[in-house]
Amino acid sequence: MTHLTRRSAVTKALRLAALGVAASMALTGVARAEDLLAKVKAKGELTVGTELQFAPFDFVEDGKQSGMNKEIFAEIGKELGVKITFLDLPWPSVLPGLEAGKFDMVAGPATITKARMERYRFSSPIADATVAILKKKGDASITKPADIAGKKVGTAKATAQLAQLQEFAKTLPTPPTIQEYVDFSQSYADLGAGRVVAVANSLPNIAFLAKQKPDVFEVVEPPFGKPVYFGYIGTKAADAKSLMDAVDAVLIKMKHDGRLASLQKKWFGTEMATPDQVTEASF
Amino acid sequence: MFDFNLIIKSLPMLLQASVWTVIYSLSSVAIGFCIGTLMCAAGLSASRLGRGVAAFYVSFFRGVPLLVQLLISYYCLPLIGVNVPSSVAAVGTLALCTGAYIAEILRGGFLGIPHGLVEAARMVGLSRAQILTRIEVPLAVRFTLPSLVNETTMMVKASSLISVVGVLELTRLAQNIATSTFQPLEIYLTAGAIYFVINGVITLAGRFAESRFRLETAR
């Protein structure tokens, strides 16, 4: 009798343990199978990290978010059937936040570079991001990009634009002094105040700025950087692939039906040809 | 040159953001006061463990920059499975940080209570708990009121850092507007004036409390 009881107790314990293992396996299985796109759709919300200081993509107008990102993501939200929630952070915090899982993807956009492609999954490009020089209106000492040799040039920290400027500086006879700012707005302010004579940033951004402040700033044509593109960013994690694929499908659809071109015209004043996918970055 | 219209246009938005600044900083000070009281009690306790915990707590939160603490709580804790929303990370970190300072402020207050007063209270037969609640805590708070008000104004200013974890407050909105309008001067001057007013009100409230609880009237 005692023997029997003890045996049944052992069996019971074993069964319980087996059940526990099975349950935990099932749970982890579910967690793995539940990919990001399914999660986003179940929640009905796509959370996007960005910085509202990157006109014309993201900026504040009358206290509210404005710009091209909001309009592109509105289309993405419509196609995926989800609400879009933006989270505004300083740019150096945005990519760490993506990796910490604070949001599903990043708007920005960011220049698609080799180094970043190794770590992140980029969306289909939405704009040309080739770097050019912004100068003060009427500054005759800078008429071509190489004229920044030996002068003080500003750009933002931790950006692809900085990397391109450093590369370009090496090709000049006297390298310029590069002043790194926390964000581009400070570099524009210092350009206005005369603390730097030029700012290096992607063409869409400075073209927009020069359009907004035509009596203060002027773009130096042509761009000096290697041809690069702007894309949105997701993680390379296996569970994020479905979401990034879905976003790409929407963006490519927008390229083909002209919606992206009309947004580019609205925000950059000109249409920009972009490939469906950047498989190899030039920089 | 100086654009008053921009100030008038941006003021309502900046005031709205400053409400968040006030909510985040004051709620952190309130929570931090509770943490500080506990840590102060631990630091003054007879238990060696309690004193050790308090000493470690204070040295960590006073020794590490608040900005780094915010970044750790938001970006590193998720790696060990603690994923809190922006607002919780912001208030929690501010509260933990100010708690360390308040613990030291209160400790100073307790140490400033004349020993004879406590002895006298014991002589007239008050219990240890009564001495604590009727004599020591009221005196310590009165002694330290100016420092506590000081700490509160520091936290209002420190709250300008919490935008790194994705929380909108006065400084962040001012930056966003300044960037979008390319007119930083007007916006930052306005934001500075709003901080000045908030801290002015806190200082006045502190003065009022000081006069209300003056040691003479407590006799």
From TrEMBL, chain A:
Gene3D superfamilies: Periplasmic binding protein-like II. InterPro entries: Solute-binding_3/MltF_N, TAT_signal. It comes from the Bacteria. The keyword Metal-binding does not apply. The keyword Signal applies. Residues 1-33 form the signal peptide. Residues 45-271 form the Solute-binding protein family 3/N-terminal domain. Pfam families: SBP_bac_3. Keywords: Signal. This is Amino acid ABC transporter. The lineage of its organism: Bacteria, Pseudomonadati, Pseudomonadota, Alphaproteobacteria, Hyphomicrobiales.
UniProtKB/TrEMBL annotation, chain B:
GO terms for cellular component: ATP-binding cassette (ABC) transporter complex. GO terms for biological process: amino acid transport. Gene3D superfamilies: MetI-like. It comes from the Bacteria. InterPro entries: AA_ABC_transptr_permease_3TM (IPR010065), ArtM/GltK/GlnP/TcyL/YhdX-like (IPR043429), MetI-like (IPR000515), MetI-like_sf (IPR035906). Pfam families: BPD_transp_1. The keyword Disulfide bond does not apply. Residues 18-206 form the ABC transmembrane type-1 domain. Keywords: Amino-acid transport, Cell membrane, Membrane, Transmembrane, Transmembrane helix, Transport. Belongs to the binding-protein-dependent transport system permease family. HisMQ subfamily. This is Amino acid ABC transporter.
